Every structure is written in structure tokens, then in C-alpha cells.
């Protein structure tokens, strides 16, 4: 079969993740390829941190779904979605942003 480094290069070359093909493109300078590698690593790290915050919030914060009976007074078109944010969620996201 295909060796691991060759398989990774093939994956990066054909990936739909925007920065990945830039990393292995031999027509790009080493600096540009390094730039894209750093950007992709930082994006991966930021994604990991946000997932950790989401998981922590899921495990430790109460989530409630409420059926509102005041819907007759609402003037919304179908389909619609209402999202109620709380300050505690913003604080968790802010803390994750500060880690990055």
C-alpha cells in the first residue's frame, strides 16, 4: 500500500480544507507553505479549544428547552428559530478566546 507520508501528502493535496493544499504545493515558496501550515495549526488549535469549552458547558451547565405558550403574540414567519443566549455562555467563549 501507500506509505504514510505519501498518503498524508495525497490527502493534503486533495483536501477541501482551504489551507491544506497550499502546504504541499511545490510551486509555492517555503515561506508561504510554512505560513499556511502555521495558519492551519492555529485554526486546529482554536477549534480544539472551542470544542473543549462546548463539552465543558454541555457537561456542567443546565440546558433547558421551554415550550412557550405566548406564541400567539409573536409575529414571526415560518420557519423561524429563536435562540436565547445567557451571559455564562459568553463568559465561557470569552475564556476560550483568551486561551487562543
From TrEMBL:
It comes from the Eukaryota. One of its GO terms (cellular component) is membrane. It is a multi-pass membrane protein. It is found in: Membrane. The keyword Transport applies. One of its GO terms (molecular function) is sodium channel activity. InterPro entries: ENaC. Keywords: Ion channel, Ion transport, Membrane, Sodium, Sodium channel, Sodium transport, Transmembrane, Transmembrane helix, Transport. The keyword Ion transport applies. Belongs to the amiloride-sensitive sodium channel (TC 1.A.6) family. This is Amiloride-sensitive cation channel 2, neuronal. It comes from Lygus hesperus.
Amino acid at each position: 500500500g501507500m506509505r504514510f507520508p505519501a498518503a498524508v501528502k495525497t490527502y493534503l493535496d486533495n483536501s477541501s480544507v482551504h489551507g491544506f493544499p497550499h502546504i504541499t504545493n511545490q510551486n509555492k515558496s517555503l515561506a508561504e507553505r510554512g505560513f499556511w501550515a502555521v495558519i492551519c495549526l492555529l485554526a486546529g488549535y482554536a477549534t480544539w479549544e472551542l470544542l473543549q469549552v462546548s463539552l465543558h458547558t454541555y457537561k456542567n451547565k443546565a440546558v433547558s428547552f421551554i415550550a412557550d405558550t405566548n406564541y400567539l403574540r409573536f409575529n414571526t414567519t415560518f420557519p423561524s428559530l429563536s435562540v436565547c443566549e445567557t451571559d455564562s455562555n459568553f463568559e465561557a467563549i470569552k475564556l476560550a478566546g483568551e486561551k487562543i
